Amino acid sequence: MCKPFNDFHRATGMRDGHRSECKDCSRTARRRNYESNRDAYIRRAQEWKRRNSEKYREMERSDGRQEGPRRVGATGTSISVASTA
Asked: pTM score, two decimals?
């Protein structure tokens, strides 16, 4: 089966500059890996949160954004949304 290069992730170390596994196959493999090792992934995330508690709290406060959250109203004007954290 031949697929266009757009269906493959970039990999600069490969001769043609793309991975040998297509994006769909890669996604399926990652999903299967997560499902079979779900507890380990969750445990690793919890351990990271414990070791980086201040960074985690800061990320939670800022919601990962540099500026405060903004929404656009029906008239197209920007509306600031107050944080509840």
From this structure: 0.56
Residues 83/69, Cβ–Cβ less than 8 Å: yes
> 15 φ, ψ to 5°?
-60, -45
- Per-residue pLDDT band for 85 (boundaries 50, 70, 90) equals very low
DSSP 4: -
Domain residue ranges in the chain: 1-36, 37-85
How far is residue 55's CA from residue 68's CA, in Å, rounded to a whole number? Answer: 17
Return the half-sphere exposure (C-beta side, CA atoms, 13 A cut-off) of residue 33.
7
Neighbours of 8 (CB within 10 A): 19
70, two tokens: 């903004």
pLDDT tens string 34-57: 999 999 999 999 999 999 999 888
